Every structure is written in structure tokens, then in C-alpha cells.
Amino acid sequence: MLESFIRKVKKGYWTRGGVWQWDWYIHILFAKTMSFGKYPIYLGYEVPVFGDEYLDFYKEAEILERFRDFFKDSQKTKKLLIDFDEICVSANKLIVELKNQNFDSKKYIKKQEDLSLLMGSVSLVFDEIIAHGVSEISKEESVSEADIINYILKNSSETKLTESNNKLLEIYKNFQKEFEKVDFNFEELDPKIKILLVKHTENFGWISTSERGLKPWSPQSFLDQLKVLVKEKQPNKERLFIDKVSAKNKNLIDTSAKINSYDNQAADKQVELDFLFKNYLKKKMGMYYIEEITQNLIFEELIEVSKNPKKIRKYEERYNNQLRLVWPEGGSLHFYYFKDQKEFQKIQNLIKRKRSKTQEIKGTVACRGKVEGRVRIIKAYDDLKEFKKGEILVAFQTQPAYVVVMAKAAAIVTDSGGITSHAAIIAREFGIPCVVGTNNATSLLKNGDKVLVNAIDGRVTKL
Question: Ranges for the PEP-utilising enzyme mobile domain (predicted)?
């Protein structure tokens, strides 16, 4: 089957997009039709390999054109929001069940698929539609796009990270002198404050576990975030404009905010479900649980070893073997594990990268501001170690594990994503200038470049 994949790659079936780190086990939706009511959205292909490479969506342009006027149909829009809400509500119920160690594999994977489809529809379709709508409303109502985007983000910030930050700030207000006295060092805090932070960690530590190999945040991790919040966070000033907008356009803006909110909720719920599932596996497998192997199994294999932990031995060749290829063909998924880095590189080099057709770096403003600084390219989690306070963080896209570093960035620039993206939410949370969806920042910039990030008109310029 690998030969069949190679033939398709050589014919140009796929091009290689950006790089991101994948979930801790392998389960990906390929060539799926997701349907909310009667309105299907075709996702297309992804091929994850080490680090993970994702490939172009299938017929993306045609999909966007077909859905361009989606929001003009109130019945479709209403149905979409109802379906999104049902997905999130049922995910909450499943989270409660998993916390009580009640696990149903069919229900679990179905809910993960629903959440993935919700987020996929936003990133593939609705992000673009919202951006188009913002542009049209801006022209029609003589209101700046940045003000509309800020309003949407402000009214859709129901993330677990925001909840965590707000609770941390509440603790800080009650014990401000104690925190300042020990310079936010957990070990030196009063025991009663430690108890509060440990409890906070139990409730929110899982937020950072969205990528393989990452551990839950510790109490000190939260203190590091708190230190940034109280010393560097600048409130975003909102311009009051919404009351001047026509009822029709206000409804479109509010609908965009609701979609963004459901997208944020779905991302949080998916990470928490994965975290709880991993803990369930640990308890079921006991001494046979080996994360270096389980993180390289597909979902069905994980269920197999959870029922018979000793069967983990038959997958010993997967130990720390992250060099894998997954592709759809003939109506099913095919998996291939590479023998070594050399074999992997040979296949990886066959997949052509997208080449930027322009030298201009321009995207969507997610949080306003203007700043100069040195570039730091973040391609994988390990790159975060090199990041220095005040640098410009440039990435294909950001992940929850990047938050502590993002809070120290002078500005954030991403290749992908729109106003509903993780980078946009975090940038606004910390008041950091941010430009998203440039498509080419990581390919045109390199570490150490001095740039001007103009997060007013969405341009990034080399100096």
C-alpha cells in the first residue's frame, strides 16, 4: 500500500502545509463528510507524519464559495448553532462519566469525532466566512474591522484558560502581598495558599496536555502565568459601536461570536476528554501502561490493550517510534511505521511544500498594536526552550502548551488561522499585538530577523 501512496504523491495529489505536533495517540478524520442538519461539509485529506505535516483540504475553494452566503439563511444558521450546542452539552456529560471511570469506547470516539468535525468546520469554512462578513459589515457600516473582531473575541472568550486566569487573579487579589514577597515562588508560599493552587492545578492542569509528551501544568506553571498576568497584561479598550450597527448586521456579528465560542469550547472539551482517557488507560493497564508505546497506537489498539494489558508486548516495535504515515485509500485508513529516519526523510521529501507566491507578509489583525522585535520561529514544542522575552513569536499555528511563552512575546504572527484561532484568543487575553493567517510568515522569516509587526493594518515588515 505504501507504493500506492507514493504514486499518488508523485502525481501531485497532496502538497505539504505547515508543521504541528499531533495528539498523543493516533486517530484522525480523513475524507469525512460532516453534516449539520442537511448541510454537508467535505473536509478532505490529512497525512500526519513526524511532527505532523498536514495537507491541503480537498476542494477548499469550491467549499468556501458554496458556503459564502451561509449566514444569510436564518434557518441554516439556527440549525448550525443548535447542533453545535448539542455536541458541547453531550461532551460535558461524557466528561462527567469519565471522571467517574465510566468508559464507553464507542460513545467516546463518536464524541471526539463530533468535536473534531465542529472545529474542522470552523477552521475550514466558517473562519473564512466570518472574515468575509466582517469585511462587508465594516464597509457597509463604516466601522473598523478591528473593532468588529475585538467585539467577536470579547463575546466568545469562554475558554478554560480564561476561566483559569480569572480564578488565579481572584487568588492573587486575596494574597497579593504574599505573592509579591516570595516573587511567585510556590515552595515559599504559605501552606494555605499552596492548597488553593494545588486545587487549581487539579481543575485546570490538563489544559497543557494537548500534544504528545506534555505533562499537566504544575502549581509553579500557574504562578509563572499569574506573574505575567498581573505585571504585563494590558486591558484591550473596546470601542462602543455595536448599538450603531443595523439589526441585520448585529445578528451576523453575534452569530459569529457564538460560533467562535462553540469552537473554543470544543477544543477545551477534546483536550480534557483525552486527558481523562489517558488516566483511565493508566488505571486499567497498571504496570503494563507504557506511554512511549501507547502514544503510537491507533484508538482501536488502545481499546485492545486496555481490555488485555499484556497485549502491549506485541506493539513493542512502536516504542518511541513516532515516524509514521497515515493515509486514506479505498474507503479505509492505512498506517505505515518507518524503519528509521532515513526512510522517513525519503518519503517526506516527496511531498512538495507550498511555495509563497508573494514576498509580502500580510494577514488578519487578531489583537491591535505595533511593535518591533526579533523573530523566533516555533515549529515544535522543543523550540520554546529557545524563546526569549520580547521576541516576536512566529509559528504555523499555536497550541495551548505555548501559552506561558506567548505571554512573554512582544507580538505573535501565524501562518494559519483566523479570528477564531488559538493565537487570536490568547493574544487578546494578554493584550499582545497579533497577526494571523499570513500563510507565509514561517517560510519568509528566519530566527533573528528584525521585523515590524503592524497589527493595525495586518502587515509584517523586515527592517
Answer: 387-458
